[in-house]
Amino acid sequence: MIKIGHKEIGSHTKPFIIAEMSGNHNQSLDRALRLVELAAKAGVDALKLQTYTPDTITLDVHSGEFFIEDDQNLWKGNSLYNLYKEAHTPWEWHKAIFDKATELGLLAFSSPFDETAVDFLETLNVPAYKIASFENVDIPLIRKVARTGKPTIISTGMATVAELDEAVKTFRKEGNNQLILLKCTSTYPATPLNSNLATIPHMRELFGTEIGLSDHTMGVGVSVAAVTLGATVIEKHFTTARADGGVDSAFSMEPHELKMLVEETERAWQSLGHIQYGPTDAEKDSIKFRRSLYIGDDLKAGDILTKDNLRNVRPGLGLPTKYYDLVLGKEIKHDVKKGTPLSWELLI
């Protein structure tokens, strides 16, 4: 069990839901604060930002490998520098956003993308950290975050088992065992087909950590499925409305969808329960509506039970139906009315 702020994370409690703002503030602090309000109204547990500047994440170069030309890429036609300039959350906004989240009962933390971001976030006393998928091979950054002693979530997108092993060992070597791994597919949007949720229980067994899902698919189905496989944390990008545009809007949830995510993942978690055979307490009243053996006609003493006068019907207050062949041909001991449940006491 891991605790972030006042929230416990584990199989004993409902999934911990993180609303990822990312760049969906569209460079408006008012919009960012509105997003905090919408996240709180949806019922999530935490709000997450990303902490970087274009200069801490890439170079001010606008050609070659620094320019996105892939037709399949959501951000085609941008240089990395300009993309991150548009997407980054100004550092001077962080306190206002975190304070608003705290005021509304949300935990708030961030993904640092370099060591200076960790130093900055420490001044804000964040309760946890998140290492993004593209940084899960940045060993110095993982080491720096681990040394804060705070709970940390690492997304596993693109990482091989060997890379994850190195990241986990690096983190734990600093004496910090408060680690959560998120299964992640680093495509935007992702599809259910390439989500490979079967990795979740395998990853839990392999690394001995809480496992969650950083979900870039549309809708809530993949997240709900992840909870049934043991995911205890779900992270989703969200926005006011996809029609508003923005760097991540195309694969972000709208507020009503975020609320649905909270509700449906909790229902999925509740449904897991424990190994159960036989009637639950809630089912016991329904047992009487099973089929059983009933007298199907008015009968006199000495009459013989036949397929015409012995019925296999609901409710379930007569002899179990497994005795049907056994009692055919038996005599009735005394007069009985149609609708009488068959019992051994009625037979000679």
From TrEMBL:
InterPro entries attached to this UniProt entry: AFP_Neu5c_C_sf, Aldolase_TIM, PseI-like, PseI/NeuA/B-like_N, Pseudaminic_synth_PseI, SAF, SAF_AFP_Neu5Ac, SAF_PseI/NeuA/NeuB
The record ties this protein, via SUPFAM superfamilies, to: AFP III-like domain, Aldolase
- Print the keywords alphabetically: Transferase
Instruction: Specify the AFP-like domain's residue ranges.
Output: 292-348
Keyword Transmembrane helix among record annotations: no
Checking CDD domains in the record gives: SAF_NeuB_like (cd11615)
The protein's matches in NCBIfam families, at most eight in alphabetical order, are given as: PseI
- The entry's protein name is Pseudaminic acid synthase
